[in-house]
Write a structure and sequence with these properties.
Layout: E1 3-6, H1 14-44, H2 47-53, H3 60-79, H4 81-85, H5 87-110, H6 114-135, E2 142-145, E3 149-151, E4 160-162, E5 166-172, E6 175-180, E7 185-189, H7 197-210, H8 212-219
Antiparallel strand pairs: 1-2, 2-3, 3-4, 5-6, 6-7
Helix pairs in contact: 1-3, 1-6, 5-6
Length: 220
């Protein structure tokens, strides 16, 4: 017999998604402002001063575009954050962020700017990781109980509990609680109740009782 219980737990949390968007926002705004300032300074200098800044310049229109893009993304993050959380639009925005940060990383290294290049690379890798994680975010997580033990969701540090480790299993008010004999406690919200709660708890109770002798062996 096997019981498979779906959970409400999210792999990717709203706060984490919005925070990374804000990091990209600030990177774009700072980059755009910096490029415009450099362009302004370049126009006001000549000779050696102008020559020292020339490697840092790109067309002023591009700098203004980067700044505008950063402000636009800031507006979306503040006023339309739900749009960023939707799978389709959110994925398009993430890919755009990845391409921009990757382009700036490559441009920085090409211009010999190691520190900005490293910063853009770190942001690019973070966006890439978010893109992969968010793509899997809609996968349902489960707790599975069978005759061997209880398999916990992938987000749990402990992946499997043998029955001798478990003291009690309880389902109340759409909350699954697993209490271990060594005082570890696991709890999750259950997204649906498409199983017989009484049969589930009776099954768990029987398996716990059958394994009590094994507990003495493992503890000692």
């Amino acid at each position: 017999m096997e019981f498979k219980i779906a959970l409400e737990e999210e792999r990717v949390r709203r706060g984490h998604i919005v925070t990374l968007h804000l990091i990209v926002v600030f990177a774009l705004i700072i980059t755009g402002a910096f490029l415009l300032i450099i362009q302004y300074m370049l126009n006001s200098l000549d000779g050696a001063g102008r020559a020292s800044l020339t490697p840092l310049t790109i067309p002023a229109g591009l700098g203004a575009g980067v700044l505008a893009g950063g402000l636009l993304l800031l507006g979306l993050t503040i006023f339309k954050s739900n749009l960023l959380l939707e799978r389709g639009p959110g994925r398009v925005i993430r890919i755009s962020e990845l391409l921009l940060m990757g382009a700036f990383a490559g441009l920085s290294f090409w211009k010999g700017l190691q520190i900005p290049g490293i910063i853009y690379t770190i942001i690019s890798l973070s966006v890439l990781y978010a893109l992969i994680s968010e793509g899997r975010a809609d996968s349902t997580l489960y707790v599975v109980a069978d005759k061997k033990g209880i398999r916990l969701p992938v987000t749990s540090r402990k992946k499997f509990l043998q029955w001798w480790e478990v003291e009690n299993v309880l389902v109340r008010f759409s909350i699954l609680t697993i209490d271990c004999h060594d005082n570890r406690l696991f709890q999750w919200n259950i997204s649906d109740r498409n199983f017989d709660r009484e049969s589930f708890q009776r099954f768990c109770g029987e398996k716990i009782a059958e394994s009590r002798e094994l507990r003495k062996k493992h503890v000692w």
